[in-house]
Structures are given as C-alpha cells and as structure tokens.
Design brief:
Layout: E1 28-32, E2 35-40, E3 46-48, E4 57-59, E5 63-65, E6 81-83, E7 111-115, E8 121-125, H1 126-131, E9 172-176, E10 179-185, E11 195-197, E12 210-211
Parallel strand pairs: 3-4, 5-6, 11-12
Antiparallel strand pairs: 1-2, 2-3, 7-8, 9-10, 10-11
C-alpha cells in the first residue's frame, strides 16, 4: 500500500508526492470494460470520447451538464450535448460568440436560431421567420385576407391613427395579387410631390394629387 493505489483506497497519502499519473511524457488513459473512456494528455488536455483532445476539456459524442456552466473562455462541444436540466434550461454566454460549424451547404447565409414548439433550437432562414410575422420589403406569400376576426392586414388594433411615412424620395407601393394597386409619391420622386396614384402604368400620371383611374 505504500507503493501502489489500493483497490479499497489508501491512507496517509501526501498529494505533494503521491499522485495517479505518468512521469515519462505519456498520456494517462482510464478504461472500463477494456475500452478507453478518458484520456489526459501529457500537455494537460482532457478528452472524453476522443483519443485526441483538442482543448483543455474536449467532450465528443453524447454529453450532459446539469446545473450552472460558466464559460470564461472558448467552449467547444462536439456531438449531442445537453446543457441544463428539465427544471430550467439556460445557456449564458457573456461577451462571447456562438459559432455554428459544419453548416450544410445550399442554405441561406442570413439565419437565426429558433426554439420550436418541441423545445428544439434549430437554424431557420431569417426571411422565412420574419415573413411569417411581418411584412417583407419584397412582399409576402401565403397571406390571407382579413375577415374581421382573422387574416392579415396593414394596421394596428389599438385606438391610434395609422401613419404611413417615408424619409427618402422613394414612393411607397402597395401591392395585392402580385400587382401594384396604390402608390404614394413623396417629394422628389416620380410625379408631383405628395401625390397618390393607382399604379405606374397606363395613362400619364402625376397630373392630380389623387389619381385612381384604371390602366
């Protein structure tokens, strides 16, 4: 017992001179069922599920962390890892960046992270997310007309006036059925300042402040 670690534990040890490890520049490997489960390299990197840890703590495969995880530096997680618990799931990153790697090709470059109804966090194109809840600058698809209780509309539900404004000399175009149905011209745009017209085609526009004639 003075020269080896006992299966039932040792007493009278001195951590300054007694330790579990190597002295010849080789990694320390811990096995169960004759299969490597944990490795500490000669430089101090700890690997679980990998024989080549690439960080101070490198967990590959399926992992779980319950409680509070504080990442003061870079945190790299490979495989399926659960952070938090069923009572309160929380991952806090202070002054850091979450980087997605191995992103499949052919997907939108502008993406956001979305927590769906099943509790899964997944990537989704920003345009498709915004388009489901807001009017897109290039128009929306899949809309339904407002019927008094459901549908899509431009406006609000509180007792305030609806104001349509522009700070640039560009007209505001309202489209329906993939065609322009109303055009508001500010100062400096096509036609006289502050005119309202039906569309940009047909007869000559810009003769009146309000021009809603047919094509």
């Amino acid at each position: 017992s003075s020269n080896a670690w006992s299966l039932t534990g040792n007493s009278g040890t001195n951590p300054a001179v007694n330790f579990l490890g190597t002295t010849d520049g080789q990694p320390l490997v811990i096995r169960t069922s004759n299969t490597e489960r944990l490795r500490i390299t000669q430089t101090g990197d700890v690997g679980i599920g990998t024989t080549t840890p690439a960080a101070r703590l490198h967990v590959a495969g399926t992992g779980r962390i319950d409680g509070t995880l504080t990442a003061a530096a870079d945190l790299s997680v490979d495989g399926n890892t659960t952070l938090g618990n069923a009572a309160a799931d929380q991952l806090t990153v202070n002054a850091g960046t979450i980087v997605l790697v191995n992103v499949p090709t052919g997907v939108a470059t502008q993406e956001v992270l979305l927590r769906d109804g099943g509790g899964q966090v997944r990537r989704i194109a920003a345009g498709s997310l915004v388009g489901a809840h807001a009017w897109m600058l290039g128009g929306n698809t899949g809309t339904t007309a407002w019927n008094g209780s459901a549908g899509n509309y431009v406006g609000h539900s509180d007792a305030q006036p609806l104001v349509i404004a522009t700070t640039t000399p560009q007209p505001i175009q309202l489209w329906a059925g993939n065609q322009q149905v109303l055009r508001l011209n500010p100062a400096g745009s096509t036609g006289p300042a502050w005119s309202i017209q039906r569309d940009a085609g047909g007869n000559q526009r810009g003769l009146y402040a309000v021009d809603l004639q047919a094509n």
